[in-house]
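[step 3/7] inverse_fold.run input=structure_tokens len=284
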């Protein structure tokens, strides 16, 4: 089969008239989506479009991450581990995409960014309610973050609801308890509005699961999926830190944080500390 003049003919059944049919653009609401990139620099700086699209696409992916993590938590509560792990697997692929996106933003040089940074005012990624919601869902609860969102009642209500609900780790530990594992009662009865902290009594539970993986394959697989989630999240945090350092050095953030120094502290946060601590104990 050859194509004449390097131009292909359209198949005869391809739909051409969308005057009364839903099109690709209308289904995805592309006029709304593609009109949402509104640079504020004056005169408009060429690289501000990159900055806007980078953050808007991140927010779209975060919306899907929240959708999947909330579903995974619900499936765990109904003892449907398979569906929960499927959702978590999807989140892992999204995380890889989000991490790779930093390489695009890293093409923005310090000189280029400095030419429109002042127009951003106090807007900052620190104010992303969806990012904070993901952190809360994974267990890094922090009530002190809520005042940042008081001017946005919908975002504030969402974060408060997630703050006061079990994290996905809480739901996983409750699932393990229902499956007969000796999860400490203190974890099942803890104040879920606080960040999860390391519990030494939980490590032997995971040690048993890992050393008897063949007999506890579902729990074993879930543990490894959660480890992947945290690894991916920490890689995202690290790439964020390094991109900020290469773009603004040690300047303060536009939202008032200390910038790179504040992001560095995030690398010390953990979601599932016992799943990492157990590695020291396995085989001993």
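[step 3/7] decode complete -> sequence:
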């Amino acid at each position: 089969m050859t194509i004449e003049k390097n131009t292909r003919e359209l198949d005869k059944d391809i739909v051409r008239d969308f005057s009364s049919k839903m099109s690709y653009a209308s289904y995805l609401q592309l006029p709304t989506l593609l009109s949402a990139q509104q640079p504020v620099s004056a005169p408009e700086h060429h690289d501000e479009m990159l900055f806007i699209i980078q953050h808007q696409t991140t927010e779209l992916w975060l919306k899907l991450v929240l959708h999947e993590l909330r579903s995974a938590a619900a499936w765990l509560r109904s003892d449907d581990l398979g569906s929960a792990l499927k959702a978590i697997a999807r989140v892992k692929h999204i995380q890889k995409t989000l991490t790779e996106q930093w390489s695009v933003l890293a093409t923005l040089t310090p000189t280029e960014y400095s030419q429109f940074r002042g127009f951003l005012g106090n807007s900052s990624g620190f104010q992303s309610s969806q990012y904070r919601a993901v952190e809360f869902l994974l267990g890094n609860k922090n009530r002190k973050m809520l005042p940042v969102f008081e001017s946005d009642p919908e975002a504030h209500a969402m974060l408060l609801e997630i703050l006061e609900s079990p994290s996905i780790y809480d739901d996983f530990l409750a699932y393990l308890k229902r499956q007969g594992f000796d999860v400490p009662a203190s974890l099942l009865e803890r104040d879920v509005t606080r960040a999860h902290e390391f519990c030494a009594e939980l490590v032997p539970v995971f040690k048993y699961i890992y050393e008897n993986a063949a007999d506890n394959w579902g729990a074993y697989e879930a543990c490894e999926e959660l480890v992947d989630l945290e690894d991916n999240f920490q890689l995202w945090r690290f790439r964020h830190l390094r991109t900020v350092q290469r773009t603004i050095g040690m300047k303060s953030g536009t939202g008032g944080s200390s910038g790179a120094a504040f992001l560095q502290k995030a690398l010390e946060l953990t979601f599932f500390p016992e799943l990492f601590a157990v590695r020291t104990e396995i085989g001993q």
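[step 4/7] annotate
The chain has a mean pLDDT of 95.
The CA atoms of residues 114 and 121 lie 13 Å apart.
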